[in-house]
Amino acid sequence: MSDVACKQLYLYMELKPKNYIILFILFFAVLIGIQGYQLYNTYQLKQREMLAMVKKNLDNLDESNLIFDHNILSKDIARDYYIKLVKKEITEEGLKKLYQTYAQKTSKELTKYVDSIFQPLGMHVILKQEILGIYYKDAVKPLVNGPITVYTTSGTFHNPTELSTSKWVTEKTETNKIEDRIESKEILYVFSVPRKTSFEVVNLGWILFKELTSLLLSTLLILAAFIWLFYRTITNLRKQDKQITVLHDVVDNISHELKTPVATLKIAAKTLRKSPDDNIITVIERQVSRLEQTLDPLSEHQSATSLSPITADELQAIFSDFQLCNPTVKLIVELGSNLQICLNPTDATTLFYNLMNNAVKYGATALGIRFEEQKNYLSIQFRDNGQGMAESELPYIFEKFYRIQKDNIHDTKGLGLGLFLVKNIIKKYGGEIKVISKLQQGTTFTVLLPR
């Protein structure tokens, strides 16, 4: 594989969820377009087939006018009325009214005839024939303006389709005697009558919908399957991403937690090298035990939350080990009698060490820890004389990887995980943590834990 292809593959694999969604929308739009185009073409084809079938059944209607000729204005009679119109013996409105009368007589019988053809096919077809105009001889302007209905079925037209167009040409010669003379004069009357026959399938939309139901359902199923597959893909990607995030969190937390016992063990080893001391050996044993507890969450069958609450001796050991590692820091602990803390040893060690080390990290030389039992909560106050924090920093100090910086430079070492872990532990036990701090005046953290 070429370098360019590898690079393109790498970029493709590095797509963010947002990009996946954009790509899905594009592909889905293309799929909808293809399916919509297919549906449209099928609809047009079915419509043409349906209209062609209707036309075929109506083609011979003009030749079978005998079924209602006794009610329709015959061609010879119509021509005689045209001649009367030329002679001004009748008016244009009178001729139109005559056609209207005959069309009404025909309507019922014609409707019955058309229905007899198409109702068995589940179709409702309406039909009409109109005269577009009546022209006398070669006149450009019609003698009578159309349209004039020759016959029609019952029903209202909305989108008629042309069935046929034709032009009826008729002529007749009449001999008129000239008054007070023996001679006579022949007059040729020639009429041109363009006609149009139209029809409409009233329930065409419903018929086509039923015809296309299977295709429409299959299209919807394809689109639904496409959406479901994309949803499952995104869900799996998010699940994997969440698992990776959890793994990173575990690694970050454990690496952070290992620092303190490792540092304590180093100091204990140096002290032990100078002079043997049973107390130092106890410290080493405690820190080894803490290392084991830190690694316990990696086991499928062990969890730190299953441990019993921390005892007073275990709590005192935390402060002793801290003092061993920080001999220059003045540590004052005010423990109450019969004190009960709901934290297990692992969580308590993480909480106390992070808050105490955080104070030392930011310049504290004195640290006071006070335990006070309130009505529903146990209050633990950490007060130091360090450099403090600006008020603008306080809303962010519990965020993961957040570290206070000055002039775009981090003054202290660390990953920015300590206070994040403290916040999560307190949240797990249903408590809360508050902080008050001012620059050059120290910081006070107050932890409230349910009793």
TrEMBL record:
Organism the protein comes from: Sphingobacterium detergens
Any Pfam family matching the protein: HATPase_c
TM region(s), chain numbering: 20-40, 212-231
GO terms (BP aspect): cellular response to phosphate starvation
Lineage: superkingdom: Bacteria
Record-linked SUPFAM superfamilies: ATPase domain of HSP90 chaperone/DNA topoisomerase II/histidine kinase, Homodimeric domain of signal transducing histidine kinase
Annotated coiled-coil segments of the chain: none
Keywords: Kinase, Membrane, Phosphoprotein, Transferase, Transmembrane, Transmembrane helix, Two-component regulatory system
Family matches, as InterPro entries: BphY/WalK/GraS-like (IPR050351), HATPase_C_sf (IPR036890), HATPase_dom (IPR003594), His_kinase_dom (IPR005467), HisK_dim/P_dom (IPR003661), HisK_dim/P_sf (IPR036097), Sig_transdc_His_kin-like_C (IPR004358)
Gene3D superfamilies named in the record: 1.10.287.130, Histidine kinase-like ATPase, C-terminal domain
Residues in Histidine kinase domain copies: 253-451
Catalysed reactions, semicolon-separated: ATP + protein L-histidine = ADP + protein N-phospho-L-histidine
UniProt-recorded name of the protein: histidine kinase
EC number, as in UniProt: 2.7.13.3
GO MF terms, alphabetically ordered: phosphoprotein phosphatase activity; phosphorelay sensor kinase activity
GO cellular component, one term: plasma membrane
Signal peptide positions on this chain: none
